[in-house]
Design goal:
Layout lengths: L10 E7 L12 E7 L12 E3 L2 E2 L4 E2 L8 H5 L10 H23 L11 E9 L3 E4 L4 E8 L13 E3 L4 H16 L10 H19 L2 H11 L11 E2 L1 H6 L7 E2 L6 H6 L3 H32 L12 H24 L11 H15 L7 H11 L14 H4 L17 H8 L15 H20 L13 E11 L5 E12 L1 H5 L9 E9 L4 E7 L3 H16 L3 H4 L2 H6 L7 H7 L2
Parallel strand pairs: 3-6, 6-8
Antiparallel strand pairs: 1-2, 4-5, 7-8, 8-9, 10-11, 12-13, 13-14, 14-15
Helix pairs in contact: 2-3, 2-9, 3-4, 4-8, 4-9, 5-9, 8-9, 8-11, 9-10, 10-11, 13-14
Length: 584
């Protein structure tokens, strides 16, 4: 409650570009985002996001925007402007908070970034055609550059292009930060899918953020007559960036024709990531078409053939509502799958099984067939589920399996103390403002962390862990969410990781870090329902060694790099080089 005695609003409205400034300030590109309300100081600086507008090239700080100023509040923030750094700050903050809210809504819990500190955004960090997430700085750094003089596309030759004004680029980079927060070991390239998953998932979120916005959908639906597979801004990433760098097209797109051979041959992370994006998009489009069939039949008198000319606005609005609803369902499924992924060595097969299992837990019926469409879309691209119990492509075969023998946690998660303790990082004095736990709450967290560690050490074989290597508790939390039927789903998720130091010291591995781990999912009464393991078996050690050797054969730095380079060559703590290569 505010000091004046009035309640703070639940939402803060802020104006942004829906796509890129290149598309102008038309109604379809000028959007007002509603983000969770929190008290802000100029920057803006909130509990989880801090905008620091230091221009690394000009060596100057720009005036920070004050989103609490009454004039700004009454106008839903500053109006979109390519020339006002304060709007750049506002847009970076608004899109970031929108993406964070998407993750939190799907996961059923609030998220804090590394070391409980805000994620820092630098809208004008450097001069260059790049933007990237930096783990060491816990920051997203956006560059700016001059459009290509000879081939600028719809831009002015030589005009300054700001990556912080691209809705897609902001969403993409913030997703990298959130993925790193949820699965920090995905910076370890243990198989060809790891980097592809990081890039593909970031693209997926950036694209589907558009489809969840009904205001953005209506214009495209009117132009394409409902065909969302038509080329256009909804399914394309960073149009201005792509055109201004001389590519003559958007950076990437979600639309392609299934090619099973690509999954067997593609190694570049963006190219491999495109397989993930296209598969999910195809599943979305198939279910979207099912959902609008009745609307088309009603509008066409049963013929299914829309008349020529301008579609009725009521029909467009209803189609847009169905498209947005489907997009939210798909995006929620994909984000929720993170709770059901192993902590290390993630593959596309793992992701598919995690999506199917997580969605089955919340929506068992799947009346729209979304899970079946997703399985089929992955199959068409040569991605087949693998692992224990998978004997077919039937949904029940893909579900993660329960332990062979019934198991229980060493405590009862339904105790109020644990629920409060697991939520302690996210409770604050004001709506939406998380605060760190107090002394008593931290003691409780440490207590249950100790019990979980002892439990894992005493049940290594049952949990798919190496019986010799000591497991490390990566983290645990309680999840609360409601099913579409209104059923409350409560689970406790714990992750354990093991590092094979003997393999790392083995000269044959060349310093490669070999990790194994397990995700344990328990019900509210402590019964362990799923054990999702990547054990440190001989086969997995050899697979990682073979992958490292294949990467080394293509790595020109290995022969001349510093000695420390060898130990870290398969990691990307900083995404700058990866994105610079992928943007060309």
């Amino acid at each position: 409650m505010a000091t004046s005695g009035y309640e703070f609003p639940a939402r803060r409205n802020l104006q942004v570009f829906a796509f890129d400034p290149m598309r102008g300030r038309t109604a379809g590109n000028r959007l007002t985002l509603g983000v969770p309300f929190e008290r802000l100081v100029p920057g803006p600086l909130g509990q989880r996001v801090q905008v620091i507008d230091f221009d690394g090239s000009a060596r100057v700080f720009y005036e920070p925007v004050d989103l609490e100023d009454p004039a700004v509040l009454m106008n839903d923030g500053l109006s979109p402007s390519e020339s006002d750094p304060r709007f750049h700050q506002q847009m970076a903050y608004a899109v970031t908070m929108s993406v964070v809210e998407t993750f939190e809504s799907a996961l059923g819990r609030k998220l804090a970034f590394r070391k409980q500190k805000p994620l820092r955004l630098f809208p004008h960090a450097f001069e260059g055609a790049n933007a990237f997430y930096d783990r060491d700085l816990s920051a997203v750094l956006f560059g700016y550059f001059k459009a290509d003089e000879r081939d600028p596309g719809p831009n002015l030759p030589g005009q300054t292009v700001f990556t912080c004004l691209s809705h897609d680029i902001i969403a993409h980079e913030v997703t990298h930060a959130l993925v790193d927060r949820l699965k920090p070991h995905l910076i370890e390239a243990s198989n060809p899918d790891v980097y592809g998953f990081h890039e593909g998932f970031a693209d997926l979120v950036a694209i589907f953020q558009h489809f969840t916005l009904k205001e953005v959908l209506t214009e495209t639906i009117q132009k394409t007559r409902g065909d969302l597979r038509s080329p256009g801004p909804l399914a394309e990433l960073a149009q201005q960036f792509g055109y201004s760098t001389g590519r003559g097209r958007a950076l990437r797109t979600a639309i392609d024709k299934p090619d099973p051979s690509l999954y067997r041959t593609a190694t570049e992370p963006h190219e491999r990531g495109s397989i993930l994006v296209a598969a999910v998009f195809d599943a979305f489009f198939a279910v979207y078409q099912q959902r609008i069939q009745d609307l088309i039949r009603i509008a066409t008198g049963g013929t299914g053939r829309l008349p020529e000319g301008y579609l009725h606005p009521d029909l467009v609005n209803r189609i847009a509502s169905e498209a947005a609803k489907t997009a939210r369902n798909v995006l929620t499924m994909c984000v929720r799958a993170f709770e059901y992924l192993p902590p290390v060595d993630v593959t596309y097969s793992d992701f598919l099984r995690a999506v199917v299992t997580a969605d089955f837990e919340t929506v068992p019926a799947d009346e729209r067939g979304l899970r079946a469409e997703l399985i089929e879309a992955f199959r068409l691209r040569g991605v087949y589920p693998e692992g224990q119990g998978v004997v077919s492509l039937a949904e029940e075969s893909l579900l993660w399996k329960a332990p062979n023998e019934p198991m229980k946690l060493p405590f009862d998660p339904s105790q109020e103390a644990l629920v409060l303790s697991a939520q302690a990082f996210d409770r604050g004095p004001r709506r939406g403002e998380p605060s760190p736990p107090g002394v008593d709450e931290r003691k409780a967290l440490n207590k249950w962390a100790g019990l979980l560690g002892e439990f894992a050490s005493g049940h290594r074989r049952e949990l798919g862990l190496d019986p010799v290597v000591k497991p490390h508790l990566e983290g645990f939390h309680t999840v609360f969410r409601f099913s579409p039927e209104g059923r409350l789903v409560v689970e406790l998720v714990a992750q354990f990781v093991q590092e094979d130091r003997a393999a790392q010291d083995d000269p044959a591995f060349g310093g490669v870090k070999v990790l194994g781990g397990t995700t344990v999912i328990a019900s509210v009464n402590g019964d362990i329902r799923y054990v999702i393991a990547k054990p440190l078996t001989r086969e997995r050690r050899q697979t990682q060694l073979d992958f490292a050797a294949a990467c080394d054969r293509e790595d020109p730095m290995l022969a001349c790099g510093h000695r420390s380079y060898e130990a870290h060559r398969l990691r990307f703590r900083n995404f700058a080089r990866l994105h610079a290569a992928g943007s060309r």
